[in-house]
Amino acid sequence: MPTIKILPHAEYCPEGAEISAPAGTSICEAMLENHIDIEHACEMSCACTTCHVVVRKGIESLNEAEEGEEDLLDRAWGLEPQSRLSCQAILAQTDLTVEIPKYSINHAKENH
Predict the structure, then answer these.
(1) Are strands 3-6 and 96-99 parallel, antiparallel or unpaired?
(2) 1: which residues sit within 8 A by CB, 6+ positions away?
(3) Which residue from 18, 75, 92, 97 lies 20 to 30 Å from 31 (Cα-Cα)?
């Protein structure tokens, strides 16, 4: 089972974390299942950018981004070449290192 190292994020994961999830799971699902409550305003339907992450290690092991995801990523805050929507990035058998950007474009956060 691949391990996902999540770099520290002040709101979602202040100490950073290492979690495991089975191949075929999205990064977003893996984080949510491990109590890292990353935003996902569209309920993981690839209709927003609130679950944007930057994959610092292991991006080549993920499924390729489809055109709809790439179009949405163009609107993400802090876009980088290794950016993915975590709801669309499906784990393979390779360990990852992931960074959650400091901000998202979601101005009306849920649970606040």
Answers:
(1) parallel
(2) 20, 21, 22, 23
(3) 75
Contact by Cβ (8 Å): 27, 53: yes
Are 84 and 55 in contact by the 8 Å Cβ rule? The answer is: yes
Q: Distance between CA atoms of 59 and 82, rounded to whole angstroms?
A: 7
Mean pLDDT of the chain: 92
Q: Is the pLDDT of residue 39 over 80?
A: yes
Find the angle CA(29)-CA(83)-CA(28) to the nearest 5 degrees. 5
Residue with tokens 């992931």: 98
Report the Cα–Cα distance between both ends of the chain, in Å, rounded: 34
